[in-house]
Amino acid sequence: MPKKSDDPFAHVREATLKHRARHGCGAWPYDNGPLLATVAAAAGARRILELGCALGYTSLSLASGAPKARVDTVERDPEHVRLARENIAAEGFDKCITVHEGDFAKVLPTLDPGYDVAFFDGHSPVPALHKTLHKLLKTGGMLVTANLNHGGTADDVHAALFDGKSWQSALIGEDGETAISVKL
Ligand SMILES: C[S@@+](CC[C@H](N)C(=O)[O-])C[C@H]1O[C@@H](n2cnc3c(N)ncnc32)[C@H](O)[C@@H]1O
Q1: 118-128 b/e with 16+ CB inside 10 Å = b?
Q2: What is the extent of the structural domain holding 58?
């Protein structure tokens, strides 16, 4: 996990942890925003898609790595949407990050394909959503998948990411929680 001083949005992450304790929700912030910023920068991303915005910590991280990018982030909890929009505006990123309110399954069909980077952080990954993410990414586009260690459908997604046909993938860290994949 990065040190606070390494992470320009550590205060948003801290606010998300405090919110979760009060709200009793599933807003577990991702543990490495600077990694996402670096992926977005390496891809020279112009379009970024995130599933699972919570309070905006990772949307901000992704946007900060690719200053020319537009970020679409999806969140179904209205309180999270409200707080994310507040946090994003407070950081001055409201012109480049759009928070789409609704379920992934409802919002994804409304988005145009051609994303350079996608980040899945919406609780347990499920194969149907990953198939849609594959369609929405450009060939050579990068996908970061969190929560791969949840078991159940996450194991099926893990197998698909390592099938050697649709994706080139690597696990990051020792717990198998996150994969970085490139669309083949
Ligand atoms: C682990 S949190 C995201 C954390 C965020 N990326 C961060 O690092 O701060 C997962 C979020 O996904 C949202 N979510 C889960 N399933 C969803 C679905 N099917 N459609 C839309 N949002 C969903 C939850 O409401 C929650 O806010």
Answers
A1: bbbbbebbbee
A2: 4-183
Q: Provide the CATH number for the domain around residue 152.
A: 3.40.50.150
- pTM, whole model, 2 decimals? 0.97
Per-residue pLDDT tens over the stretch 58-105: 999 999 999 999 999 999 999 999 999 999 999 999 999 999 999 999
> Using one digit for the tens of pLDDT, what is the confidence trace for 126-175?
999 999 999 999 999 999 999 999 999 999 999 999 999 999 999 997 78
Please give the structure tokens belonging to residue 175: 């717990």
Pocket of ligand 1 contains residue 104 by CB under 6 Å: yes
Nearest atom in ligand 1 to the alpha carbon of residue 146 is: 1
Question: Which of 60, 42, 35 shows the shortest CA–CA distance to 50?
Answer: 60
Ligand 1 pocket residue status of 15, Cβ below 6 Å: no
Residue 74 CA, ligand 1 centroid: distance in Å: 8
The domain total for the chain is 1
Residue 31 in contact with ligand 1 by CB distance below 6 A: no
- Give the DSSP letter string of 52-85: --TTSHHHHHHHHH-TT-EEEEEE--HHHHHHHH
